[in-house]
Write a structure and sequence with these properties.
The protein has about 550 residues and is mainly α. The protein has helices at about 5-10, 15-45, 50-70, 75-80, 85-105, 110-130, 140-145, 160-175, 185-205, 210-225, 230-250, 250-265, 275-290, 315-345, 350-375, 395-410, 415-420, 425-430, 455-470, 480-495, 515-530, and strands spanning about 135-140, 150, 155, 500, 505-510. The chain folds into two domains: about 45-420, no CATH class; about 450-495 and about 510-535, no CATH class. Helix 3 (about 50-70) runs antiparallel to helix 16 (about 395-410) and helix 20 packs across helix 21. The longest helix has about 35 residues, at about 315-345.
């Protein structure tokens, strides 16, 4: 080999082969980034995409949950009552009530939700105290935690309501706030104190799993609101010390840690004692294989797997629907997290953004904990799988919170503009859901009140105009568009028509074009909102 060939083949000397390889890698990275950029641009240009996808994901999860409860509750329903479908029918009624709350949450304005937050927070604290009173709270002897209040045929779990209430309160109290210090006058400090009191009441019930889920919502709320990283680090250190204390404290919770470590090594020693539930869950997942044994054909639900309809319903999903069914459930929760965070990033104001982010984080984190301990990645905590596990008021509260999340997606500026131009979606028209109001503000000023109606309207129009200018290349200037549209609107109001020469030389009258009517309508809206309001359609490319 000659010296020239050696230099050309040496990548350190910048030879032709190394340059070609570098160019190929660069082209591959550019192609990949171009694909991602095109996908992002496509999603950003579609008004109502978040609203549509959230509804599809939520209804799919609810449908899977009803089917799995019908299957997993057959054995326990037959033993505890006179019918096989008693528990399934009860869960269906709870889901129907939750869907009614979902519809109601879509109809109300976010500003009205903000006014209700202090009352909801007070109610949750009262219920957390009441459940600790002997004779009112139940569940200590049955499941080891006094977490339920029995009201006739229904039961209420106050910690479920508290988890949603603390997220909404954080969105109300921390919106448009800056964390400056750790004094009591700081809203972040006051929020942390109230959350700590509620967390202590949940731990006093003996429900460590729900306390952990509650703490995750608080941490995400502080993180999304922009708290100082020192506060997050302090909370994580306290959580680590608490986990060590549970591990060294003995009892059934310590046994769960030992079972977890055994599961990581693939050898559960006490399969008939402390590790019985986790071991049976692994067997159920293994029996399912890739495609599952079929809906209703699970063997683990016949008293082999404890809490098959509640905590370990994902094991029944894996057994009856296989790996594909379990992966579908995981994918749906991942998509729920993606579009929930995307809704928060595109919200009108910070209150709606925080509300969407905290509600999404609460549900997705709970699903992560449940699936994690079923497959052996986390210790067993006794947390239900949202919208899939059998539950009383927990199903109603979770579905209602998803209605609030979808409501934030309806109030995205581009979605409002699209509804104003093209009308409401078919789903909204069938269920008589009114068009969202772009003027989303509180009626009276105060510490926890929303921005004024005029300010909120101006903010919504400005965001819409900025996004329209971003994706609307070639759009004329706003003042020029307003001048032309105003002139055409005035001409249309006087009844003037465009004159056109016919082939015979006569003058005929023609109606104004559709685009002129739309421009006149846009000009009227521009005068109303004070800023340019446009639809979401991408401009037609020039040939």
């Amino acid at each position: 080999m000659t010296a020239t060939e050696s230099r050309a083949s040496d990548p350190r000397r910048g030879g032709a082969s190394s340059q070609a390889a570098a160019a190929g890698e660069k082209a591959q990275r550019t192609s990949k980034m171009g694909w991602l950029a095109n996908a992002k641009e496509y999603m950003d240009s579609r008004a109502g995409l978040d609203y549509l996808m959230l509804r599809i994901i939520i209804f799919l999860l609810i449908g899977i949950g009803i089917i799995m409860v019908f299957s997993s509750s057959m054995a326990t329903s037959y033993v505890e009552s006179t019918g096989v479908w008693t528990e399934a029918i009860r869960q269906t009624l709870m889901v129907v009530a939750g869907l009614f709350m979902f519809w109601l949450a879509l109809r109300i304005r976010p500003s009205f939700v903000r006014k209700l937050v202090p009352w909801l927070l007070a109610l949750s604290i009262v219920l957390l105290i009441a459940v600790l009173i002997p004779g009112i709270g139940t569940g200590r002897d049955e499941v080891g935690s006094q977490s339920w209040i029995i009201l006739g045929p229904a039961s209420i779990q106050p910690s479920e309501l508290a988890r949603v209430a603390i997220g909404l309160y954080g969105a109300t109290a921390l919106a448009d706030k800056v964390h400056r210090n750790f004094r009591l006058s700081d809203p972040f400090t006051m929020y942390s104190i109230i959350a700590g009191i509620m967390f202590g009441l949940i731990i006093a019930q003996g429900d460590i799993g729900m306390g952990m889920s509650f703490a995750v919502v608080v941490i995400f709320t502080l993180f999304f609101a922009g708290v100082n990283w020192i506060a997050i680090a302090m909370i994580l250190v306290l959580a680590a010390f608490a986990a060590i204390g549970l591990f060294l404290g003995g009892g059934f919770r310590s046994n769960r840690f030992h079972t977890y470590f055994d599961a990581l090594t693939g050898n559960i020693e006490d399969t008939q004692g402390t590790g019985f539930q986790a071991y049976q869950g692994f067997l159920s997942l293994a029996d399912g294989g890739l495609t599952g044994v079929g809906i209703g054909q699970s063997r683990a639900k016949w008293f082999y797997l404890p809490e098959a309809k509640n905590d370990f319903v994902f094991a029944i999903v894996g057994e009856e629907l296989g790996l594909f069914g379990g992966a579908l459930v995981i994918l749906l929760f991942a998509l729920l997290g993606f579009f929930g965070v995307r809704t928060a990033m595109r919200a009108q104001n910070q209150f709606q953004a925080l509300m969407a982010a905290t509600l999404t984080a609460g549900v997705v984190a709970q699903a992560f904990f449940n699936i994690g301990y079923v497959v052996g990645l986390l210790p067993v905590t006794g947390i239900q799988l949202p919208m899939i596990s059998a539950g009383g008021t927990s199903a109603i509260i979770t579905i209602a919170s998803m209605g609030l999340l979808a409501n934030v997606a309806r109030h995205e500026p581009m979605q409002i503009s699209a509804m104003q131009n093209y009308g409401r979606p078919l789903f909204d028209r069938i269920l008589n859901i009114p068009e969202p109001d772009p003027i989303d503000g509180a009626a009276r000023p105060g510490r926890h009140s929303a921005p004024s109606r005029r300010a909120a309207s101006r903010n919504t129009a400005q965001v819409t105009a900025d996004r329209a200018n971003q994706y609307g290349d070639g759009r004329v200037a706003e003042h020029e568009s307003e001048r032309r549209a105003g002139a055409r609107s005035a001409a249309a109001g006087r009844g003037e028509y465009r004159r056109a020469a016919s082939p015979g030389g006569d003058i005929q009258r023609t109606q104004p074009r559709r685009s002129e009517t739309r421009r006149a309508r846009d000009a009227e809206r521009e005068k109303r909102f004070g800023q340019a309001v446009t639809d979401n359609r991408r401009p037609r490319e020039k040939r």
